[in-house]
Write a structure and sequence with these properties.
Layout lengths: L2 E2 L14 E7 L7 E5 L2 E7 L8 E3 L2 E9 L16 E7 L4 E7 L6 E7 L13 E7 L7 E5 L6 E4 L8 E3 L2 E3 L1 E5 L7 E2 L3 E3 L4 E7 L9 E6 L4
Parallel strand pairs: 1-5, 2-8, 10-18
Antiparallel strand pairs: 2-5, 3-4, 3-6, 6-7, 8-9, 10-13, 11-12, 11-15, 14-17, 15-16, 18-19
Length: about 220
């Protein structure tokens, strides 16, 4: 596992609970990106729809900058290219998050999606799978989410919102995503297999009108 280390001198960091961060490129611009933390490249060529592994993080303040890949080694030039987006965030001890790059240029943004620390120690029913839903479709209305031919799990999930975890029997599922309250067929995902005792997040990405089209990504949570 890679690590992000604080650039500041600090005391007591060695005794703090570790934190974990990963990155998701969900920007419909579809550019592969390089991600910097405190001016150090920590992830290169993160393609659209790709999620990195978790990084172990020293609790600290971090300036996250996102550049298009292949923009050159800007440290060798007089003027660096402008980042697609940058933001500063504070990582406290014992926290977990996914940092998503969302929206289209020039409104590219960084979204912090919190996760549950030590998730697996808190799963009271490990014989089931756990699943939550995140709406990263910038032009979508509030969405509802359900297994095809199953009971609706979530409703009124607006852009950038995430749900709680729902418990599901292990198995293979097709899911339906559509505007809340709609009777239309909506978007049907590919088949996803949920395993016993595993927690997942399903991200909706893309656009409802235009390219790239609406799509989904299923990732496992909590494997540090």
């Amino acid at each position: 596992m890679s690590s992000l280390w604080c650039s500041k001198l600090s005391t007591g960091a060695g005794s703090a609970r570790p934190s974990y961060v990963r990155f998701l490129n969900a920007s419909p611009d579809k550019l592969p990106v390089d991600i910097y933390a405190n001016d150090k490249c920590v992830a290169s060529r993160v393609c659209y729809g790709e999620v990195t592994d978790y990084f172990s993080v020293t609790p600290c303040s971090y300036c996250i900058s996102v550049y298009p890949s292949n923009s050159g080694n800007w440290k060798e030039t007089a003027l660096p290219p402008p980042p697609l987006v940058e933001a500063c965030l504070s990582v406290t001890a014992g926290t977990v998050m996914t940092i998503a790059i969302v929206c289209t240029s020039p409104k590219t943004a960084i979204l912090v999606i919190p996760e549950i620390y030590r998730l697996y120690t808190r799963m009271r029913r490990p014989n089931l799978a756990a699943l939550r839903f995140v709406n990263l479709v910038q032009d979508a209305p509030a969405l509802e989410f359900a297994p095809v031919d199953g009971t609706r799990l979530f409703r009124s999930v607006c852009f950038t919102e995430h749900t709680r975890y729902a418990r599901l029997e292990p198995g293979t599922y097709l899911f339906r995503i559509r505007p809340t309250g709609s009777t239309q067929s909506g978007f049907i995902t590919q088949e996803y297999t949920l395993e016993r005792g595993v927690a997942y997040t399903l991200y909706a990405i893309g656009l409802t009108s235009g390219l790239p089209p609406l799509d989904t990504i299923l990732v496992e949570d909590g494997f540090y």
